[in-house]
Amino acid sequence: MTATEQELKEIVKQKYGEIALQEVATNKASCCGAGGCSTEVYNIMADDYNELDGYATDADLGLGCGLPTKFAKIKTGDTVVDLGSGAGNDCFVARAETGETGKVYGIDFTANMIEKAKANAEKLGFANVEFRLGDIEDIPLKDNLADVVVSNCVLNLVPNKKAVFAEIRRILKPSGHFSISDIVLVGELPDKIKDVAEMYAGCVAGAIQKTEYLNLIKESGFQNITLQKEKPILIPDDILGNYLNAEEIESFKNQEGGIFSVTVYAEKEALSKSNCCPPESGCC
């Protein structure tokens, strides 16, 4: 890992450690929890979880950019892994789908978030939801464990996205799948936004091009790649004004493309007769 990658990860870890200690209302009134940066009292990224079973208000810090668990095709008894699980919101929604016979793991590299998530799970009495401190570039779970992987507005914060997709493929069972909500770009962000750490931790400046993102999934060996949802992210002028002058704001708003929230589905290949066991064993 380069020094720059490590520095970016430390920025994100520090920022999300601070977010874990903030009041829920403060997070929801900011841009992806990055601070009270807009006079518009709403989160510019997040979707509404209120209609989903398992939704826990105390676990929703307003840090997401989609509803991956809504699209994840989770079945009763499934093992589900949430990458960048925060205070546990998507884990608890997943638990409502997989039921008492399933298992849900939440992985987060911020100790304060793990503590908050564990407290929420204990309060809800969920014995089959487990939170582990770990880096999603090196997931602390065994191979071929998960039926489903979900993640909500996290991969764009990780410098080495290729490593994350390799880890997702490793922990998924054959024929397992993921549903991931993330931020992608069409066209280029102004350098003034891209280079500001506050915006990086606010889910925007770490994003890559949509075509690059989808190609990365394909190159990682996944199949049946499907764009389940796509919506534009419109940043209020008072946020842009912290980084750009009036002329730059106008240019940015008039450029083709922009910032988008996408939810992407893909599958790991099934286990074939040629690779499930030695031919002479007859087990296939």
Description:
By secondary structure, the protein is an alpha/beta fold. It has one domain (3-268): 3-Layer(aba) Sandwich (Rossmann fold). It has helices at 3-21, 24-28, 68-71, 89-98, 111-124, 161-171, 191-194, 197-201, 210-219, 237-240, 246-254, 273-276, and strands at residues 79-83, 103-108, 129-133, 146-152, 172-186, 208-209, 223-232, 258-267. Strands 1, 2, 3, 4, 5, 6, 7 and 8 form an 8-stranded mixed sheet that branches. The relative contact order is 0.15.
Sheet of most strands? 8 strands, mixed
Count of the separate structural domains: 1
CA-based gyration radius: 19 Å
Shape annotation: globular
N to C succession of SSEs? HHHEHEHEEHEHHEHEHHEH
Report the structural category. Answer: alpha/beta
CATH T-level topology: Rossmann fold
Helix coverage percent of residues?
A: 25-40%
Uncertain parts = 25-42, 278-284
Query: Separation of termini?
Result: 41 Å
Number of DSSP strands? 8
| CATH uppermost class | Alpha Beta
Output the CATH homologous superfamily: Vaccinia Virus protein VP39
How much beta, percentage-wise?
A: 15-25%
Number of helices: 12
Mean pLDDT: 82
CATH architecture descriptor name: 3-Layer(aba) Sandwich
